[in-house]
Each structure stands twice: as C-alpha cells, then as structure tokens.
Design brief:
single chain, mainly alpha
C-alpha cells in the first residue's frame, strides 16, 4: 500500500507546534531517519540537562529512549548535513531574506519560521527549565550523559578539522561551523527528516534525487542568478557564523583556563600533601626495607638449611636406592653365574653320559652282531629267532637315534637359553649403568637449578634495592634543582629591589628620607647578605648533598651495571641450563627410545621365549607321548623279553635235559667203553698170557708136535681170522664212541656260548632300562631348568619394570621442574609485555575518547543553536536542545 504522509525536521523558519504526532504501526516499506539531539537535554558544558530557554513557553520533554527507530539512525547524517534544498524553497527564502536582511539572526530565524506556517503547521517541541520532572536533574544528566557517550563511542574515528567543517541539517539556517568555500552546482533534492518509527512515507520519498522538471528548463539563467545570490548570502552568513564560533570558542577556552587555574592550585596543595606523604612513606619504606631484609635473610637461611637438609635426604635416599639396586644386581648376577655353572656342569655330565651311551650302544651292537653271527654259524636252523632279534635291534636302534636327536635338540635349546640369559643379564647391567648415569646427571641438574634460582632471587632483590636507591637519589636531585631555582628567583628579586631603590633615591630629593631609605636599604642589604650567606651555606650543603647523591648515584649505577652483568651471566647460565636441560631431555628421550627399543626387544624375546616355551611344551608333550610310546614299547619288549627268557629257559632246560641225557649216555657209554676196555685189556692180557703160554707150549711142543704141525695148521688159521675180526669190530666201536663224545663236547660248547649270549642280551636290556631311566631323569632335570629360567626371566622383567617406573618418575619430576621454571619466566615476560601494551592501548583509547567527547560537545552545541537558537551565555543562559518534528497536513 502506498504511503501518503511523512514527517520531517522543522527548520527555524517553520511554525512550531506544541503537539506531537501520534505513533503509527511500522510500515513494510521502511523509512529514512535523521537525529535531532535537542531532546538529549545537554548544554555546552555537559554539566546539566536542565535548559535555560526562559524566553520560550514550557513544552513537553522528549527523551532519547522514547524515539522509536532503527539502531543505525546516523546512517544518512552525512547526506542531510550536505544536501541542498529545492529551488522553490530557496526562492521563497531568498525573497524573505531580502525584506529582513538587517535584522538580528534570532529575529530572522523567527520570521523564517513564521513564513512557513501554511506549509508546516505547528510549533516544535523544546525543553526549558520551567518544566518539573519526577527525577532530579543529576540522575537525568547521568543517564543522558551515558546515552550520549554510548552514541559517541559508536561514531567512527575522525579529526576535529573534519568535524568542524560539516553543514547542518537545514541549508537555509547554514551551520555555524561551516567554512566558506565555493561549491559546484548540485541537483536539488528532498531533505531526509527525523521521522517517527510508524510514520508513513510519501510516494515521492522513494527517490532520493529530485530531477529538474522539463517545464523549468527555460528558467536556467534565473536559477543560476538565484543560486549565486544564495551562495553569496551563504558566504556572508558563514563569515558571521565563523566570528561567533570563534567568540564561543574563546569563551569556552577562558572557562577552561579558569578551571585549569583552579585545578593548578588544587594540584599544588595535593603536591605538598604528596611530598609529606612521600617523606612519611620513605621513612616507612626504610623501616619496611630493613624488616624485609631481615625477613629475607631469615628466609634465605631457612631455605638454605631446608635445601641442604632436602639435598642430604635426597642424597641418602638415592644412595640407599643405588645400594639396594646394586645389591639386587649383584645377587642376580651371582644367581645367574651359579645357574650358568650348574647348566654347564649339567651339559658336561649330559655330554659324558651321551658319549658313554654311544659307546655302550656301539659295544652292544658289536656283541649283538657277533652273537647273531655265532648263532648263524652254530644254529642255522634258528633263522626266525635271528630275524626277530634283528627287528628288535632295528627298532631299538631307531628309538635310540630318536633319543639321541631329542637329547641334541634339548642341549641346543639349553645353550640358546643360556645365551639369552647371558644377553638379558648384560642388558640389565647396561640399563643399571645408564640409570646411574641419568640419576647423577639429574642430581647435578637439580642442584644447578636450585643454585640458579637462589642467585636469581638475590639479584632481583638487589635490583629492587638499587632501583629504590636510584629513585630516592633522583628525588633528592630534583629537590636540589628546585632549591637552586628558588635561590635564583631570590637573587633576581634582590636585584630588582636594588634597582627600584636606586630609582627611588634618584627621584626623591630630601636627604633625610634618602638617609632613612639608605639605612633601610643597608639593613635590608645586610639581612639579604645574611640570608644569602645562609642560602650559600644551604647551597653548599645542597651541593655537598648533590655530590654525595651523585657519588651514590654513580655507585648505584655501578651496582646496577654489575647487577645487569650478573643478570646477563645468569641469563647465559639460564640459557646454558636450558640447553643442558634440552640435552638432558634429548638424552632422556634417547634413553626412552632405547628403553622402548629394549622393551620391544624384550617383548620380542618374551614372545620368542613364549613361543619357544610353547614349542618346548609341545615337544615336552611329544616327549611325554614318545615316553608313553617308549614305555609301551618297553613293556612290549619286556613282555617279549620275558617270553624270550621263558622260551630260552625252557629251551635251555630242554637242552640241559638233552645234555644231561647225552652226558648220562656218554657216561654210560664211557663206563661201557671203560668196562669194555678193561675187559678187552683183560682179554688182551689173557690173550697175551695165552699167547706166551702158547708160545712156550709151542716151543715145548714144537719139537714134539712137529709131526702134528701139519694137522693143526688149518685150525690155527681159522682161529686167527676170527680173532682179527673181533679186534676190528672193537676198534670200529671205539672210534664211533669217540666221535659221539666229540660231538657232545661241541654241542655243550655251543650251548655254553648261547647261554653267554643270552646273558649278554639280558645285560643289554637291563642297561637299556637304566638308560631310559637316565633319560627320564635328564628330561625332569631339563624341565626344572626350564622352570628356573622362567622364574629368572620373570624376575628380570619385574626389575626392568621397576627401572622403567624409576625412569618415568625421574623424567616426570624433571619435566615438572623445568615446566615450572619456564612458565615462571614466560609469565614474567608476558606480564611486562601485556603491561606495556595495556598502557599504550589505554593511552590511544583515552585520546580517541577525549576526541569523541569534544566532537560530541561541539556537535550538540551547534545542533542546539541550529534547532532552538543561540543562548546568551554572558547572562547565564545555557544552550537548550530538543527533538522537533511536525505532522504534515
């Protein structure tokens, strides 16, 4: 919906209305605003919000908080202060000004306001002293002062020159601060006004620039003439306003000079009071300094004693810790050496046992092969038993080779475990050495830090004392300078008195008066000489004091230079301490890295050990399985052995029975042979006897029986043939019996050899059982060694964890102390830097604030003059302010 009404700021030429336009609802199209600070109620000196415009009737009071509008109401201030009015308004005002150019400016303003009554309506709202308020003036002044200061703080920063060259809201009134200058012709435009927040807007207010209509183009010359006349009038008014402005500034500066003079007197009194308070404060400071020195000495003594006690306690604790750690390491080293010796002895004994077992196995193998060969020779019929024995031997050889391999693997694992224990012991010794080195460095650094802190505190105290002495000496030097200036003033006064006396002597003629005056002058001169002598003595005393103060100043400067040198050295030492701490931190980081590496290595070794333990457990399980299998096989072999022994015993019994039977048979045969031999020998003897008897009878009968030889020759041959046959049969039986005896002897020998072989087999089986029991003992011994190695590994791990905790504690303590020291130094530096920056910022903000306040005072003063009129400050009137707005009908 189009807007049909608008409100605007009234100029001094318009009629004033005591009424206020009613508030309307906010429009959706928006509006432009101006600010009129008349309603703030501030005068030129910002002393009160009460206005002294007694020549005007009482009107309603309008506060700034009652004005509804946007927050950025200063947005179009520059535009409306520099914009021109339309040509028609300029023409009407030019004609009005031609009729009243000789009147006063106040009367001109009133007439120009009365000439526009038909267009603008009512009288504007102003504020005077006659109005009664519910709140006192001081509270309203404070509130409005806060509002004005908040508005001025929101203004952009600018210079006073730029602020003094602005133009007011209404060009016909012409700002008193405007400098005369020629401006190029501008297009006339509508003036933005101070509107109510809900006031509707004109349709013509949509555009800001008012273009010249085509109907007025033929009047360009007249417009140009009117513009030049307006400009000339503007320049005249600007010169007048400049004069009045300078007068107001002069009055303002006079009032400021008066206030400055009173402030100077007040400051002198304050200075005297301050000098007395400074003297009292100096005496109190001296006493406080002495007491502080005593307290500081006592604190230093107490601190040194505490630090010594703490250092001694820390040293004793560290020594006790180191002694305990050394003892623990010695015990661990001794235990590791003993374990190593035991392991080496066990390894040697196991190696010897293995060598013996190998030798025994070689001997058993040889004897077994020999027995088998002898059995193969003696008993070709026992092929089955030999195959069984060969199979048993092969299985036993395989089991023996497995046992050998297992023993070799266990020996290799034992050697690896010994090597790992040796490496762990060496790592523990290296870590203990590094720990001792780091602890020694930490103790040295802590002592150095404590020493540097003590030196820094002493240097700070000396520096504060030196600064206090320098300030006192500077104050004495200033008092000497003041006394010298006072002495020079007295001397100048004396010379002036002498000149005045000489002039008076030359002018006056009476001698008596001259003598009297000469006497007076002489007495004054003597008194002045006495005063001068006293002042000279005082001056000499002051000069001596000044020399002493200069000497003390030089001494203090030397002390300050020495303190600065000591501070520089302390800074260097602090930098060295920082570098050393950085080195220590790097070393600690390196040690931490090494510790992490050792942790990783330890974790790897732990994982490897766990893996090996798992493998050993697996192998142990396998060994147990093999053991059970060996036991089962051993039981089977034992059963087979028992079966073999039983069969062998049965066979031996059979063989023995056979041998006994054979022996009995052989005995019987031998007895028979012996009987037969005896019988044959007896028969042989009988035969020999008979032969001899026969021979004798034959010899006896040879002669007698020669005749009968022929008869008996046939009978003799037959008997001899029978006897020879009997002898051959006996001889064949004897040879057969001898062969039988020989065979039985060989059989008994073979049986004896078999008995020996079986006894040897029995012995071998018993030795194998003993070796298996020995292997079980070795396995149990290896298990105990593995448990011992695990316990040593756990103890070493616990020691390493304890060392890590000690390292972490030491590093944490060092980090805390270094962080505290660095934070202390950084806080001091930050305090100094922040203090300097705060001071600079306060100075700049103060300057900007004073500039803004001055700009606001000038702006509000000039605005009040533009809107209400110039107040006569000589008569005690104060400049009034007000918001003026009217309703267009």
């Amino acid at each position: 919906m189009a807007r049909t009404h608008s409100s605007y700021t009234a100029s001094p030429t318009r009629m004033r209305s005591p009424h206020r336009s009613p508030a309307r609802r906010a429009s959706s199209q928006g509006s432009q605003y101006e600010m009129d600070l008349d309603a703030l109620g501030l005068n030129s000196t910002f002393e009160s919000t009460e206005l002294d415009g007694k020549h005007e009737p009482p009107v309603d009071r309008v506060e700034t908080s009652d004005i509804e509008g946007p927050e950025d109401f200063t947005m179009n201030m520059t535009y409306w202060m520099n914009a021109d009015l339309p040509l028609a308004q300029i023409k009407s005002r030019k004609e009005a000004n031609q009729t009243r150019h000789a009147l006063r400016m106040d009367v001109v303003q009133q007439e120009s306001e009365q000439n526009d009554t038909t267009e603008e309506g009512d009288r504007p709202i102003t504020t005077v002293d006659g109005h009664e308020y519910s709140t006192p003036a001081s509270e309203r002044s404070m509130e409005n002062d806060e509002k004005v200061r908040s508005f001025l703080s929101a203004l952009p920063d600018t210079n006073m020159e730029d602020a003094l060259t602005g133009t007011p809201a209404h060009p016909p009134q012409r700002s008193f601060l405007q400098v005369p200058m020629s401006s190029p012709p501008k297009a006339r435009s509508l003036q933005p006004t101070v509107e109510d927040y809900d006031t509707p807007r004109k349709p013509t207010q949509e555009t800001v620039i008012h273009h010249i209509s085509p109907a007025m183009r033929h009047n360009e010359k007249e417009d140009r003439i009117a513009e030049l006349l307006g400009r000339l009038e503007q320049q005249e008014l600007a010169s007048q306003t400049r004069i009045t402005e300078l007068e107001t500034i002069l009055s303002y500066t006079r009032s400021e000079l008066d206030s400055a003079r009173t402030d100077n007197y007040r400051h002198k009194e304050k200075l005297s009071n301050l000098e007395e308070s400074i003297e009292r404060q100096q005496s109190m400071d001296g006493e406080a300094r002495k007491s502080a020195e005593l307290q500081l000495k006592a604190r230093e003594d107490a601190l040194t004693t505490k630090m010594q006690e703490f250092g001694e306690e820390m040293r004793l604790q560290n020594l006790a810790k180191m002694q305990n750690q050394r003892e623990d390491f010695d015990r661990q080293l001794k235990a590791a050496k003993e374990a190593k010796a035991l392991v080496e002895e066990e390894a040697k004994s196991k190696a010897q046992a293995l060598v013996q077992v190998k030798a025994e196995l070689d001997g058993i193998r040889k004897t077994r092969t020999a027995e088998l060969e002898s059995k193969a020779v003696v008993q070709p019929d026992g092929e089955r038993s030999r195959q069984e024995f060969s199979e048993m031997e092969a299985t036993l050889n395989e089991e023996l080779s497995l046992f050998k391999k297992r023993a070799d693997s266990l020996q290799a694992e034992l050697q690896e475990a010994v090597a790992e224990a040796r490496s762990a012991r060496e790592n523990a010794e290296e870590k203990a050495r590094l720990h001792t080195v780091v602890e020694s460095k930490c103790r040295s650094q802590m002592s150095r830090v404590v020493e540097l802190e003590g030196q820094l505190q002493t240097t700070r105290f000396e520096l504060e004392c030196a600064t206090a002495d320098a300030a006192a000496k500077q104050q004495l030097f200033q008092t000497n300078i003041d006394l010298n200036s006072n002495l020079r003033q007295l001397q100048s006064q004396m010379q002036a008195i002498e000149i005045k006396n000489s002039i008076n002597d030359s002018q006056q003629s009476p001698i008596d008066e001259l003598e009297l005056r000469v006497k007076i002058v002489l007495s004054q001169l003597e008194s002045a000489k006495v005063d001068l002598a006293g002042k000279d003595q005082e001056l000499l005393h002051h000069i001596k004091l000044q020399d002493e103060s200069d000497q003390l100043l030089n001494i203090s400067k030397g002390r300050v230079e020495g303190l600065e040198a000591t501070i520089a050295t302390l800074r260097q030492q602090l930098a060295e301490a920082h570098r050393e701490s950085a080195r220590v931190r790097a070393n600690t980081e390196r040690l931490e890295q090494d510790l992490d590496d050792t942790k990783d290595q330890l974790n790897d070794t732990r994982a490897e050990m766990n893996r090996r333990v798992v493998e050993a457990e697996k192998r142990l399980g396998k060994m147990k399985d093999l053991k059970t299998e060996a036991e089962n096989k051993f039981k089977e072999l034992q059963a087979q052995r028992n079966d073999l022994i039983e069969g062998h015993e049965a066979m031996m019994e059979n063989v023995q029975n056979k041998a006994e039977e054979a022996i009995r048979k052989v005995g019987a045969l031998l007895e028979q042979e012996r009987i037969e031999k005896k019988r044959v020998v007896k028969n042989l003897k009988n035969a020999k006897d008979e032969l001899e008897d026969l021979r004798a009878a034959h010899a006896r009968q040879q002669a007698s029986e020669e005749s009968e030889e022929e008869d008996l020759s046939d009978e003799d041959t037959t008997s001899r043939s029978t006897k020879s046959k009997e002898m051959e049969a006996k001889n064949s039986e004897i040879t057969s019996l001898r062969e039988i005896i020989r065979q039985q002897i060989t059989e008994t020998k073979t049986l004896k050899s078999e008995m020996l072989l079986l006894k040897k087999d029995n012995k071998k089986l018993k030795s194998r059982l003993e070796t298996s029991s020995d292997l079980q003992v070795t396995v149990s011994g290896l298990e105990t060694q593995l448990m011992a190695l695990r316990t040593t590994n756990e103890s070493l791990q616990s020691q390493i964890d304890a060392q890590e905790e000690d390292f972490e504690a030491v590093n944490a303590a060092m980090d805390e102390k270094l962080a505290a020291m660095v934070s202390k130094v950084m806080k001091e530096r930050a305090k100094t830097v922040v203090g300097k920056r705060d001071g600079q910022w306060a100075e700049t903000v103060g300057r900007v604030q004073t500039d803004k306040e001055l700009l606001g005072k000038v702006l509000l003063r000039q605005w009040g003059r533009e809107e209400i009129g110039i107040a006569d400050e000589k008569r005690g009137e104060k400049q009034s302010y007000g918001y003026k707005y009217v309703k267009r009908t």
